[in-house]
Amino acid sequence: MSRINTNINSMIAQNTLMQQQNQLSKSLERLSTGLAINSGADNPAGLIASQNLQSQEASLNAAIGNAQRAEQISNIAEGGLQEIQSQLLQLQSLVGQTANTAGLSDAEKAANQQQVDAILQTIDRISSTTSFAGTKLLNGTYDFTTSNVGSSVADYQINAAKIPFNGNVDVKAVITASAQHAGMYLSMGGALDLTNASSTFVFDLGGAGGSHQFSFGSGTAMADIATAVNSYKSVTGVSAVASGTGLVLKSTAYGSNQFVSFTVDSLGGQSKGDGVHLLSSTNEDQASTVAANTTAWASVNNIRDAGQDVGAIINGIKASGSGTTASVSNDSLDMSVTFTNTGAQTTGGVSLFKITGGGATFSMGPSIDILNQVSLGIKNVATRNLGNSTDGWLSDLASGGSTNLITGNMNSAQTIVNNAINQISTLRGRLGSFQSNIADSTINALNVNLQNTTAAESQITDTNFASETANMTRDQILVQAATSVLSTANTMPQYVLKLLG
Question: Is there a domain that residue 23 lies in?
Fold first, then answer.
């Protein structure tokens, strides 16, 4: 059939040519952009999936940056603490030198005190100037803020806490077991009544600090024995109090790592009183009336009693006890609280304090929520904050302070410096753990997650060049063929002229 007005063959060839040109254009676009999806029309479902994956990649990159920033902050803070610890070690040496009073002149003491003052000033300067991007790190900027501190709380340290947005955290405890001293009661029947004037009552007394042997003659009063024992309590860790006709021996601190051991080396004829009693489980200032807890003088040999740590549950978490201090550590709350002596010995529920804010908060996950939130508390490490209210503060070692090197007690000064060194070491260790176990591990995990997410997104959106170049070659040939066919189809109506003669 031959037509002139309508060239169907040409229309078919044109339509085919247009389709092949469109396919060739798509192939050229994919090869030039490197993307298999350049518009929603290319792959609607794939576009949605790829956009979700790209959003996740952006979140992961932000989280990696946050974790790296957290690591940098803790690293700078740890560097400042390292220098403070170096200064504290020098301070420890000066205290030790000054304790040698017999071989040290007043001028040398004054020179040592000048060095101490310089060291304290340096520590305060480091605590106030160590910063990251203008934010101070060691002056309490990143410490947690609290309110409503209970009367049973002597001291506390908040290392980390997840605080709800625009909220706070109520910290409560249930004291399940009271803290106790180690101790015993020596029933002496009053002043020593030995066999004769030359007889001596000799015993070894030991504690967590060490041991010492004591020797007393007949007629020695309980108060005098207590005074002698207390003069060595910094060595033994055991104190004594005259009580009635006997003597109460107790460890100077609470806790299971405290003990009192008592061994008679020579009775010297001592027979008054009924021997050695362990302390009452309900009142550690009284002797136990349980027969099994009493040892007659003739049988006394290495009697030993250990103290007890406070037992507590804090916000539903069983705490680790050490003396009067209870600690908890989990993903939502990492803290320790030291109870007053009365608080540590009173069982039952108690409100500790309310965490109202503060701390350094880092978002270390692709989603912004409390699960991916990591907090870090860095206390103020100025000299007025290093130490404790019981033993004293580091600033007390300054000129005019209660433990200065010229007129102060060197034993107390050493205790304060030891406490400060321990506090800085603990904080450095916690920052180091944060870097290695939280920040570094999180960065590694996020990088693996980003790698896998990017691979999935690439599988969907990236052009497969091997396949696409083959498609382009095919489309080029088909376009050439369609163009040739169209040319032929356009000449076919001319054959009608032959029919017309």
Answer: yes
